Amino acid sequence: MRGLHQFYKELALRFAEVGMQAVAIDYFGRTAGLTSRDDSFEYMPHVQQIQLPSFFADAKAAQDYLYSTPAGKKPTFPVGFCLGGTLSFLSGTQQDFGFAGVIGFYAGMKRNLNGEGTILDRAGQIKYPVLGLFGGADQGIPNDQVQSFEQKLEQSGVEHEIISYPGAPHSFFDRRATDYAEASTDAWNRVLRFISAHIQA
């Protein structure tokens, strides 16, 4: 929900530190301009203006940027949190990206962007392996929704790993990592293992 907050810039550096190229995109840039995304940023008006075709175009531009670096064309994975998790999974419904996998933390299951259906509606359209990480105590994403998402992926035959951390709230990784250090560490290690496994696949 926070857009290109400092946390996500630093997360891109964490990926770089383990040898992975990463780029963080600002999906509010089209409506908010190049303004600060600190904790005072009022994101909700911009959430309401997100258009999926524009988001997909921005994500494709980021992917093309990575492909243009000296490392060349390597397997790519979107990683998102909350709204970004929803967008990560929705991007997984698009064949053109050719992702090696899609990763989402506490993605809202009922968010219906542009009236094109929720993640639960479109889970069967995801074309790439899925890693989903959720807080078991997330009041905004009940466990039955997470279980329904997992069942729909199972039914469609999409490779997936869905993890729910008992007692962990929403944003346990990006806002409360110190309080939920064990869950956050495990989640980070799962992300790295998932990427490594699907780079080699």
Describe the model.
The protein is α/β, with parallel strands linked by helices and 201 residues long. A 4-stranded parallel beta sheet has the order 1-2-3-4, with helices on both faces. The protein has 8 helices and 4 strands; from the N terminus they run ααααβαβαβαβα. The chain has helices spanning 6-17, 29-32, 44-47, 52-67, 83-91, 119-122, 143-156, 181-200; strands spanning 79-81, 102-105, 130-135, 160-165. The chain has one domain (6-200): 3-Layer(aba) Sandwich (Rossmann fold), CATH 3.40.50.1820.
Using DSSP, what is the number of strands? 4
Mean pLDDT: 93
Top-tier CATH class: Alpha Beta
Query: For the CA atoms, what is the radius of gyration?
Result: 16 Å
Q: Classify the fold: give the CATH topology.
A: Rossmann fold
Instruction: Give the helix level as a range of percent.
Output: 40-55%
Q: Give the H and E element order.
A: HHHHEHEHEHEH
Distance between the termini: 32 Å
Protein structure class:
alpha/beta
Question: How large is the count of helical segments?
Answer: 8
Query: What does the main sheet amount to?
Result: 4 strands, parallel
β-strand amount: 5-15%
Number of domain units: 1
GO molecular function: hydrolase activity
Protein name: Dienelactone hydrolase domain-containing protein
Domain Dienelactone hydrolase: 2-197
Organism: Dictyobacter vulcani
